[in-house]
Write a structure and sequence with these properties.
mainly alpha; Cytochrome Bc1 Complex, Chain C; two-stranded antiparallel ribbon; about 70% helix
């Protein structure tokens, strides 16, 4: 009788079918093995807080996706109704301006975090063999995020959006041979107009996100294949027989650290921890903290909305987004000559290409920053120049 009662206990009646259903699903998908592999992989012990920038980037991208979906419920991509739909969110919807604020401040934070993630990867030389494709896919993700940010800035179709669209689409003019055709293709004609907004909306909502998530998948696959490199400090030897010590690390290393096609010294770190719970706690703490800051900023500051777009205005002074302010200030400081403008455009493209092709430009085996002056010095110069130009631009626009 007791056994019969136990069999009919409510908890058993519920759990047994669920357990059987999960077993059936697991046999066909291998979900348990995948989760176990994801949670218990080894990561380098030192520098764990710096590694959180990658996972935080992914969380912020997902936040942009979900807040953007909510905005799509009301936004109308037409020059007659785009501004009106956002004004309705700002004035009539209790949470509308907050969601716009989430999307705006989330974008700002995402650009900052992905930039810091790239800087951390550069300083630790995590782009070197065999992780060249990790860096290149990450560089493309950075460019795609910038593209999403600037196309998103055009969608409100207020004065700021209209003049941003005018300036950005005109940049295509400086492409040799095909520049004018590209500009006309984006604008849908000679001037910025209704088709410009429609095509920018398609780029922002469909084209760029599709490519973005494709490269996110590729980036995550490569990360799982090669593991988190960390920094050179994780690979120092501590005994009098470094070859023997490194050999023991390789034999005892947990996957996914590669032991082939890489310098022997950097095949396995000297100390590792499990991703769960050590690294997962740090990733969660940083991501939750950033999301909380974005929620608070969105609630307090919301998102600005200028007057409706007016192509005939003579009083509006276009102000670039902060992440394009250094380039704007660079253009202000140079003479207004078409050839010089083309030269600046070529310089910017060359810098972007060097950023993307960094693993092939830096062929040395050194990982320490101080032993890579040939790449560290130019990079620090570029960072200083960008910050200096940004400060000049802020002072010019806001009279600080």
């Amino acid at each position: 009788m007791n056994a019969f009662r136990t069999l009919l206990h409510p908890s058993r009646v519920v759990t047994v079918p669920l357990r059987n259903a999960y077993r059936w699903f697991d046999e066909r998908t291998g979900i348990t093995q995948l989760v176990h592999k994801g949670l218990y992989e080894a990561v380098p012990h030192s520098g764990g807080w710096a590694y959180t920038l990658g996972s935080a980037t992914l969380v912020l991208i997902l936040l942009q996706l979900f807040s953007g979906i909510f905005l799509l419920l009301d936004y109308v991509p037409s020059v007659e109704e785009a501004w009106q739909s956002l004004h309705f969110l700002q004035a009539q919807d209790a949470f509308g301006n907050w969601v716009r604020g989430l999307h705006l401040w989330g974008a700002y934070t995402l650009i900052l975090v992905i930039g810091l993630h790239a800087l951390r990867t550069f300083l630790s030389a995590s782009y070197k063999r065999p992780r060249e494709l990790n860096w290149m896919s990450g560089a493309l993700l950075f460019f795609l995020v910038l593209g999403l940010a600037i196309t998103g800035a055009m969608l409100p179709w207020d004065n700021a959006a209209y003049w941003t669209a005018t300036v950005v689409t005109n940049i295509l003019h400086y492409f040799p041979l095909i520049g004018d055709g590209l500009r006309q293709l984006w604008r849908g004609g000679t001037f910025v107009g209704p088709i410009t907004l429609t095509r920018t909306f398609a780029l922002h909502v469909w084209v760029l996100p599709f490519v973005l998530f494709a490269f996110i998948g590729a980036h995550l696959y490569l990360l799982r294949r090669h593991g988190e490199f960390g920094a050179w400090v994780n690979y120092n030897t501590e005994t009098d027989d470094p070859d023997k010590e490194i050999g023991e690390r390789i034999r005892n290393a947990e996957p996914p650290y590669p032991t082939k096609r890489i310098e022997r010294r950097y095949a396995a770190p000297k100390r590792t921890v499990d991703f769960f719970p050590d690294q997962l706690f740090k990733d969660t703490a940083v991501s939750v903290g950033l999301v909380a800051i974005i929620f608070i900023a969105g609630l307090i500051f919301g998102a600005t909305l200028d007057e409706p777009a007016d192509s005939a205005t003579l009083t509006y002074v276009p102000t670039p987004e902060w992440f394009y302010l250094p380039l704007d200030q660079f253009l202000v400081l140079t003479p207004h000559d078409p050839l010089i403008a083309v030269g600046i455009f070529v310089i910017v493209l060359a810098g972007a290409a060097a950023f993307f092709l960094l693993p092939f430009l830096d062929r040395s085996r050194e990982r320490r920053p101080t032993r890579r002056p040939e790449v560290l010095v130019p990079a620090l110069f570029m960072i200083f120049a960008v910050i200096f130009l940004a400060v000049l631009g802020v002072n010019r626009l806001y009279n600080l």
